[in-house]
Automatic annotation (TrEMBL):
<dbReference type="InterPro" id="IPR050697">
    <property type="entry name" value="Adenylyl/Guanylyl_Cyclase_3/4"/>
</dbReference>
<dbReference type="InterPro" id="IPR011990">
    <property type="entry name" value="TPR-like_helical_dom_sf"/>
</dbReference>
<feature type="domain" description="Guanylate cyclase">
    <location>
        <begin position="12"/>
        <end position="126"/>
    </location>
</feature>
<protein>
    <submittedName>
        <fullName>TolB-like protein</fullName>
    </submittedName>
</protein>
<dbReference type="GO" id="GO:0035556">
    <property type="term" value="P:intracellular signal transduction"/>
</dbReference>
<dbReference type="GO" id="GO:0006171">
    <property type="term" value="P:cAMP biosynthetic process"/>
</dbReference>
<dbReference type="Pfam" id="PF00211">
    <property type="entry name" value="Guanylate_cyc"/>
</dbReference>
<dbReference type="GO" id="GO:0004016">
    <property type="term" value="F:adenylate cyclase activity"/>
</dbReference>
<dbReference type="InterPro" id="IPR001054">
    <property type="entry name" value="A/G_cyclase"/>
</dbReference>
<dbReference type="InterPro" id="IPR029787">
    <property type="entry name" value="Nucleotide_cyclase"/>
</dbReference>
Length: 590
């Protein structure tokens, strides 16, 4: 048996993390590193003064060990006070606060390093601490509660990543320091409450007030307005539960961190952002975080010219709403794979079905239908389930060039979904696309108008409205709808179809370069989409690029040996001269 060269001991572990380090690195990496090192030296000095030692630096994180939990608490208060004073002397954009988590427990010591669950717990609870704040575990609290000039706010018990048992977390603040983050927490969380986010049921999302930066007086109003637009837009998604503005806007100071705020609001996802206004430009940086695991799901920066502030707000807000809806859906689809099949709830069955549907293979679409049908058996009045079934049969009808039986089923499910929820945009959109496929684009416009009135950010309805206008002969009027869809849903799995429709619109207005480039973008996403290649061939011939057109024709016939012009004649243009126009362009390549 190998000789054991490690020991066990009782220790107090402090995990310390620089808040916003990555953001500062993006602004000025050299200054960020210098600021971190200066503050790290302060931390090491405070820990040493109170009988501790630092170890295991990794990136922007520091670990410290103490023999006495009281001294650990004092060290944290000391270095945080010194860092607050230092930060107050530098530009606000370059301030670097530090938060800390303290846990007391059994550790393994080997070569000067510490290991064990109690080390990991310190790192996990540090994520609950406010900026410039401190979180402690229940075990540490028992040692220090009556022996230090500190006040504690109980956040309750949490299941922490890779920790078997729940851990009770408290926020610690120095008595007499004035208003503290803990006071805000205590106003929103029940003392001794168990704030465990449920893994079941539809998730809730909260949009925090966006932070405005810049000297202009109106930047705060713009930031709040965009956040409000996002709340309104997400509430139209129907499948998401959206925390009311009156609750989420209480957290204007985001120093508590997303974990604490999310648990306080009962939200699984938190949307936050910052807006900078500089002259005639604005920059909005926004992100989506998963509260349950602390993971950043999505982040993006939007740079826009500030010309018309109100249309700008609508544009950015709608774009973010569309992206957030899809990113949350993607995260929830992945989450359902952590749940055994027999334990799936109705909404989880829908998410699992959507995952398979998005793979777009014959086998996956059949599996998706099994999930949707099981969900329907479990809850035949769920509008979410009815809408997924309507979409499934629409997709198959589209592949079959308008199968009447499938369209009947789309109509059946869509109308029942409207009975269940008259303010859901999806059934209106499904009724609209039925009319499109049945050659009634004028009637389709009415349904799609209603869908977009309910949910202006609904990219599918915008694309369908473009198709309806295109079929009615208004190619120029259709183009903005397809372009809006590109902006609202830049990563949509069915984007190839929208681009194909846009290529057709450019063909009708005889903008051949745009038709060719748009068809190419569609084919990049779906090389087997016959319609985009057909349109590209016609646009190439009209541009006099016959050699390229001939090469594309050979690709089309190789990929689709059964292709006939009858496929194009099937497209339900109100004026059949439109079909013949596209076919005539194509025939020039033969």
């Amino acid at each position: 048996m190998a000789e054991r060269n490690y020991t066990r001991q009782l220790a107090t572990i402090m995990s310390i993390d620089a808040v916003g380090f990555s953001r500062l690195m993006g602004l000025d990496d050299e200054s960020a590193v210098a600021a971190f090192e200066e503050r790290r030296d302060i931390i090491a000095d405070s820990c040493s003064t109170f009988g501790g030692r630092t170890f295991g630096d990794a990136g922007d994180s520091i670990m410290a060990e103490f023999g006495n939990p009281i001294e650990a608490l004092r060290a944290a208060f000391d270095f945080q006070g010194r860092i607050v004073a230092l930060n107050s002397s530098v530009d606000e954009a370059m301030r670097m606060p530090f938060r800390a988590g303290i846990n007391t427990g059994d550790v393994i010591v080997r070569d000067g390093r510490l290991y064990g669950d109690d080390v990991n717990i310190a790192a996990r609870i540090q994520e609950f601490a406010p900026h410039d704040g401190l979180a402690v575990s229940e075990t540490t609290w028992h040692h220090v509660k009556d022996k230090t000039a500190a006040e504690f706010t109980d956040l309750g018990e949490f299941m922490l990543k890779n920790i078997a048992l729940p851990v009770r977390v408290l926020i610690a603040g120095r008595i007499g320091s004035g208003a503290s983050p803990a006071s805000l927490v205590s106003a929103t969380l029940p003392v001794n409450g168990h704030q465990k986010l449920s893994s079941k049921g539809p998730p809730a999302i909260a949009v925090l007030p966006f932070q405005g930066h810049g000297g202009e007086r109106d930047v705060g109003y713009i930031a709040d307005g965009i956040a409000e637009d996002i709340i309104y837009g997400l509430s139209n998604s129907r499948w998401l539960s959206v925390i009311a503005k009156s609750s989420s806007f209480q957290f204007r100071d985001d120093t508590l961190g997303t974990r604490v705020i999310g648990n306080a609001l009962g939200a699984r996802y938190i949307v936050s952002g910052t807006l900078t206004h500089n002259g005639g430009q604005i920059r909005l940086s926004t992100s989506l975080a998963d509260v349950s695991n602390g993971r950043l799901v999505w982040s993006q920066r939007f740079d826009r010219a500030l010309v018309d502030i109100f249309s700008l707000r609508d544009q950015i807000g709608a774009e973010i709403v569309s992206i957030l809806d899809k990113e949350v859906d993607r995260a929830e689809q992945a989450r359902t794979f952590q749940v055994p099949w027999e334990s799936l709830e109705t909404w989880q069955l829908v998410r699992r079905g959507r995952w398979h549907m998005n793979r777009r293979t014959r086998g996956d679409t059949e599996i998706a239908l099994e999930f949707f049908e099981k969900a329907y058996r479990d809850d035949p009045n769920s509008s979410a389930v009815l809408n997924e079934l309507a979409w499934w049969y629409f997709w198959r009808a589209w592949l079959r060039f308008g199968d009447s039986d499938d369209l009947d089923k789309v109509q059946q499910y869509a109308r029942k979904a409207l009975l269940m929820d008259s303010l859901d945009a999806r059934p209106h959109a499904h009724l609209g696309v039925i009319d499109i496929m049945r050659g009634r684009p004028g009637s389709a416009v009415d349904h799609l108008d209603e869908a977009l009135h309910i949910n202006p950010s609904f990219a599918f309805a915008r694309s369908a409205m473009g198709s309806a206008r295109l079929l009615l002969g208004d190619a120029a009027g259709a183009i903005p709808f397809f372009v809006d869809t590109e902006r609202l849903s830049p990563f949509d799995l069915y984007r190839f179809h929208n681009l194909g429709e846009l290529a057709a619109a450019y063909s009708f207005v005889e903008d051949w370069p745009s038709a060719i480039s748009t068809a190419d973008r569609s084919l990049d996403l779906s090389p087997g989409y016959f319609y985009s290649r057909f349109l590209k061939i016609g646009a190439l011939t009209r541009s006099g690029r016959m050699q390229e057109a001939t090469r594309e024709l050979a690709i089309l016939m190789t990929r689709h040996p059964d292709f006939s012009e009858q496929r194009v004649r099937w497209i339900p243009f109100a004026d059949k001269a439109a079909n013949e126009f596209l076919i005539a362009n194509f025939e020039l390549a033969k």
